[in-house]
Design brief:
The chain has 348 residues and is mostly helical. The chain has a domain of 208 residues: Orthogonal Bundle (MetI-like fold), CATH 1.10.3720. The protein contains 15 helices and two strands. Strands 1-2 form a two-stranded antiparallel ribbon. The chain starts with 9 loop residues before the first helix and ends with a helix.
Length: 348
């Protein structure tokens, strides 16, 4: 009986091709090589931003730090000659700030801190209220949104001149309250004038960011809460506020950094060298206008450190909410909805 050989058919060829497709392909780039390529592309795309930050932020900061270690031109007490260059004095400018010029520095420091805490607190409350109003659906909503956002679009210098006219001795503010108050002079009323003008101008900024956070909340979340019997205050406390918290914290962080550098509004509204409203930025500008660039740079460096420490503490304490981690956001939403869903489960 003869042996018969079966020639390889199409099925055998397909199996060989399938086996070949499962085998590693020679010349295919590895994952590590692709990652390094994407890393180089990311560095290339980020490099213009880093270059701009280096020119605008890093270089002026280093130059200010270097300038703060030098004194002013003039008579050299050691030699008795007039010096054309700024002598190197080391940390003497910082020692003078906390020593001989300590009273003025601490007054400006506490004014800056007071304005930051009060204005940011009021702007947060008013901004959230503005966002809730702008988020509601009613006729004329576009006009209301435009009216709320107009103060934020007005330049600060124009806003200072406007409020200076309002707080004039014969201005609108005194006409409304029926008393003669000199708002733009020394005293606590000068602080009140600066706070009112600052809150009027920058509260819409927080309202705009909170409005963006409100618009990403689904309507079904509120419908489920209403079905579970949640009242409007409980919906705001357990749904609205937790879900807009990341946007609100970012807005507060930017406003804190901006308020710590407050200069133009109190300078235009009240004036320079007023102990009631003088801030650290105004103090640095006052020294620079008197051609004392070394002490002015020292004040600027201290202000930079103050702003940096506040921002760092803000991010460290509330970093998870600022980053907006998606892994932690889902359990939080589920946890926030349990007080309303628990009632429906008990009823069932």
């Amino acid at each position: 009986m003869a042996d018969t050989k079966i020639p390889p058919g199409p099925a055998t060829g397909e199996a060989d091709r399938a086996a070949g497709s499962r085998s590693p392909v020679i010349g295919r780039p590895s994952r590590g090589r692709a990652t390094s390529g994407s890393g180089r592309m990311a560095a290339l795309l980020v490099s213009p931003t880093l270059l701009v930050l280096t020119i605008v932020v890093l270089y002026p900061t280093v130059m200010a730090l270097q300038e703060s270690l030098h004194g002013t031109k003039g008579l050299d007490p050691k030699t008795g000659f007039i010096s054309d260059t700024e002598p190197f004095v080391g940390l003497k400018n910082y020692a003078d700030i906390f020593g001989a010029a300590g009273d003025r520095f601490w007054n400006a420091f506490w004014n800056t801190t007071f304005f930051t805490v009060v204005t940011v607190g009021l702007e947060t409350v008013i901004g959230v209220a503005m966002a809730l109003i702008m988020h509601k659906a009613f006729s004329g909503r576009a006009l209301v949104r435009a009216g709320i956002l107009i103060p934020w679009a007005v330049p600060t210098a124009i806003s200072g001149l406007l409020w200076r006219w309002i707080f004039n001795s014969n201005g609108v503010a005194n006409a409304l309250i029926g008393h003669q108050i000199l708002w733009t002079t020394e005293g606590f009323h000068a602080k009140v004038a600066v706070i009112i003008a600052e809150v009027w101008k920058t509260a819409p900024f927080i309202g705009l960011l909170v409005l963006a956070g409100l618009q990403v909340i689904g309507k079904e979340v509120y419908e489920a809460a209403r079905i579970d019997g949640a009242s409007a205050p409980r919906q705001f406390w357990h749904i609205t506020l937790p879900l807009v918290k990341p946007a609100l914290l970012v807005a507060m962080l930017f406003r804190c950094m901006d308020a710590l550098r407050m200069f133009d509004l109190p300078y235009i509204l009240v004036g320079a060298r007023k102990n009631s409203v003088e801030t650290l930025s105004m103090l640095a500008q006052s020294e620079a206008s008197n051609v004392r660039f070394g002490p002015a740079s020292a004040y600027a460096v201290l202000l930079f450190l103050y702003v940096f420490l506040v921002a760092l503490a803000f991010v460290r304490l509330l970093g998870a909410d600022l980053v907006g981690d998606s892994d932690t956001a889902k359990p939080r939403r589920k946890h926030r909805r349990t007080p309303f869903s628990r009632r429906s489960e008990v009823t069932a």
